[in-house]
Amino acid sequence: MRSQYCGDVNKSHVGQEVTLVGWVNRSRDLGGVVFLDLRDREGIIQVVYDPDLPEVFDVASSLRSEFCVQIKGVVSARPDSQINDKMRTGEIEILGKELTILNSSAPLPINMDKNQHNTEEQRLKYRYLDLRRPEMAERIIFRAKVTSVVRRFLDGNGFLDIETPILTKATPEGARDYLVPSRTYKGQFFALPQSPQLFKQLLMMSGFDRYYQIVKCFRDEDLRADRQPEFTQIDIETSFMSSAQVMDKTEEMMRSLFKELLDVDLGEFPKMTFAEAMRRFGSDKPDLRNPLELIDVADLLTDVDFKVFQGPATDPEGRVAVLCIPGGAKLSRKQLDQYAKYATIYGAKGLAWMKVNELDKGLEGIQSPVLKFLNEDVVKALLERTKAKSGDLILFGADKANIVAEAMGALRIKAGEDFDLLKGDWKPLWVVDFPMFEPTSDGGLHAMHHPFTAPSGMTPEQLEADPTAAISDAYDMVLNGCELGGGSVRIHNSEMQTAVFRILGIEEEEANEKFGFLLEALRYGTPPHAGLAFGLDRIVMLMTGASSIRDVMAFPKTTTAACPLTNAPGFANPEQLVELGISVIESEEEKEVSE
Amino acid sequence: MRSQYCGDVNKSHVGQEVTLVGWVNRSRDLGGVVFLDLRDREGIIQVVYDPDLPEVFDVASSLRSEFCVQIKGVVSARPDSQINDKMRTGEIEILGKELTILNSSAPLPINMDKNQHNTEEQRLKYRYLDLRRPEMAERIIFRAKVTSVVRRFLDGNGFLDIETPILTKATPEGARDYLVPSRTYKGQFFALPQSPQLFKQLLMMSGFDRYYQIVKCFRDEDLRADRQPEFTQIDIETSFMSSAQVMDKTEEMMRSLFKELLDVDLGEFPKMTFAEAMRRFGSDKPDLRNPLELIDVADLLTDVDFKVFQGPATDPEGRVAVLCIPGGAKLSRKQLDQYAKYATIYGAKGLAWMKVNELDKGLEGIQSPVLKFLNEDVVKALLERTKAKSGDLILFGADKANIVAEAMGALRIKAGEDFDLLKGDWKPLWVVDFPMFEPTSDGGLHAMHHPFTAPSGMTPEQLEADPTAAISDAYDMVLNGCELGGGSVRIHNSEMQTAVFRILGIEEEEANEKFGFLLEALRYGTPPHAGLAFGLDRIVMLMTGASSIRDVMAFPKTTTAACPLTNAPGFANPEQLVELGISVIESEEEKEVSE
């Protein structure tokens, strides 16, 4: 029905007759000439109808937005004065000869402009219209290109695309599972996978050696702006490869993705230990575009007569660190209060600050509520260590080390944005050498990655002797402060796996009930294996500059996990529930009504 | 950890040192030399250890099946007498120099031979071992190649891979949905999609123009050998393409798939109408390798004094057709009884037969229980029309037309196999021009394809005036008697869609409740669109010659929809059920126990 896409017509076609199909993006009758902007997925082109062909002109005059039409016409160069640099097809236009309305459109229920002010609910209810908007269509098309490039890379590197089940058993990621009642086994449930973690490990045990899958995963969590109940992972697992080799290969994949689709050369990714990332940036996913760093100053403050500083400075679990913000001294008292309030979200009890108004004036040039507690030597040492300049602001974090990292890490990000400090477009890195375990609030231990992660260079006995000292052979790929993906070398023998379950307080019975098949499988010549999973949605979001994960998915859910388009979820047929052996619990209010 | 895959070592590497990893497929100590068959996903290679290196030899002697090992050695040509033509690596062997056990294996719980006699349950419980068997691994690897070739073809033809939701609303395919309780909307449920049908149509309404997805679909059906609760579709939809264009493009895809992976040239696919397929083959998915055809003979039997023939021969809804089976006259009475019994499965009341023992002896040479009802002219006419030869068997089907088609179609397939009549390896075709509707047992109408299929060349008024006469613009791709996929041109305006719902007896309220969003969407410039879905599992099954769909899936379910590996489904945490607002209905027996 067409000779090419609208967006693909260019100057080389001048003089040719083309047939195009698409939607009326805009149609204006300007002084007896109809200018029709015709849109398809590849772009927009201008078609001009003049009254010389009265029948066609009449049809053209009758067009309204989003009519679906077919046009025939001749490509013509625009006069220089009318060339539109902002359009891919801006150098040409079509002199319309024929026009067929393939389908008309009722008046639209949402605004189709770039600067639409539709509510999120409206956009999702009329998603098929929202997706016609070029900025949305481009993101979905870009996403298809991402998966295509990734698949080509992995296919070309001997990775096998193998499907794992969606109807499966509760997985161990720790979030809430979606359940699916079984009809054959009444009262029992499948779980939708939070990831194919165990299946991909089983595939390594089967000898497939290099696996990948671009696969839906599910978490029944309370949603935040960047979370969706179903999301997509680029899931990878390999046998006989070290963590360094897995990192190299997947880094190569990411580099080729950015090169091919954005013409960006990401270069070699630096590696940074978790400890260094927390020390310098207060985050395990530091945005390296932000030049601010946390500077440790506890050693300068062990003797000051100010408990807020001196306490953490002398506490083995405490930390005192500062951020020096260039130009920050211009913040008002009110703005500083806002920074303090922001820090408390992350657990800080307050926020001490110091304005370096004029560096060469000594204490005179310094303004700070805590100045009275600090003698001149301490202030001088602080200024030297932070390399503060006149006009800078120093913010203090003093608390338990994890609170300082979190609060100062958050302030670092905020200040980086507020003061427009970010440098460079793309700053990837690997964060490595994570602790195996982190303490839980009830005094136990929690696996920092997941319970199948191998420790670096330890026997099961050594691990059990001092679990909190163990470093895992895990790695996260971070870009611009976002975790793109993470993975680890996996445990490949049952003694180590059993030891880890024991350290995590998973009783033998529970371990067997939940992971018995894995422990059994580990007994039959399991190869050393390692892998990683990337969040596809987040990668596409970053690469397209979208502000929400919903803008890179064709049919996302609302933040209450509903679909306004199809009205899912919905009530079930009562007979089907009986077949499934379940019933809906009447809520108290409903009971009252029915009484 | 390796220099190459085991299967990739060949004569060109003779003299080189290689490092390989894999599993002990077999290890034998023959007269003081250990022959180790080492296996990885690409093949098996022989490694030889002699006692010259006593330490290595001792390790080699200790190997048991399925140990995971790393070896180093030098590639050596085998003496001519020891060349093994059946192995890819049969011309060479490795002289082992080093040997590291990466992981040992406990004695195996299943038999790993090619001719294993493990039960299906055992194979699924130890799937990770079952998948190590080369014939299983090869099928899974082949499947990955199929998806890779298909994706490359579709990517190269401008199709966009777009993901549609798994948590969605009940879909209209008519099978039972899997339900997922919503936590946010207690008492409500998502359904897992039986296909992305409506979403792909919505994507056409969004202007994406060419869509594909290799996607999981779900049906909670009672399972048969070739059904699984979750299966995979190659799902395709296009805008602005006619049914002929969709068929051409997807036929090209299938041709390139067979060419690239099997080096088979499928040639151009013939097109056959549904009516012709039913008339000649008694099936809408005829296996064209089978030369047998149903031959209509009602006109010869309108006057015979035998109600069983004469009734259907004169009934406008009846049909009398025969199959002439070359060499079939040798069947014993007992075998003929089995054929008759087989026909009754498909609704036939019995099966009349006629043995053509000696054609040139007239009625003398004919043997048949119904011979007494037929005069010589009728018999002669039957023999002429069927072109029967001495030794042939004629089977009669006389009943309502649909029963004759089904029963004789089934006998055609059975006879084709029993008498080894199949010719050629691959016989594809398109079946087209299906009826829009078929009658239901309660006197209503059912959509033969699905309710979104467009009729060929009819207005909504014409369709409603005589729905049973309507032919749909639908098409099925059939290969060797299997439906590989099917699709149709879709309805793209709401008047036609509403008319079809009305014909199907879907009340306005129900239509709005279930498909209101589709009817609404059809109002805003919906483009003409058409599509198709292929069953990936079945394609892989055919191409690999697997006898069960389970043998082309990594982790299938049993015929009771369970997973013996993970023990899914399982009991849920009671608190989670409360959160979901559902409860398990106690069965009568359980109630008694708890009382």
UniProtKB/TrEMBL annotation, chains A, B:
Its EC number is 6.1.1.12. Residues 197-200 are annotated as: Aspartate. GO terms for biological process: aspartyl-tRNA aminoacylation. It comes from the Bacteria. It is an enzyme of class 6 (ligase). It is found in: Cytoplasm. Keywords: Aminoacyl-tRNA synthetase, ATP-binding, Cytoplasm, Ligase, Nucleotide-binding, Protein biosynthesis. Catalyzes the attachment of L-aspartate to tRNA(Asp) in a two-step reaction: L-aspartate is first activated by ATP to form Asp-AMP and then transferred to the acceptor end of tRNA(Asp). Belongs to the class-II aminoacyl-tRNA synthetase family. Type 1 subfamily. Homodimer. This is Aspartate--tRNA ligase. It comes from Shewanella benthica KT99. The lineage of its organism: Bacteria, Pseudomonadati, Pseudomonadota, Gammaproteobacteria, Alteromonadales. The gene is aspS.
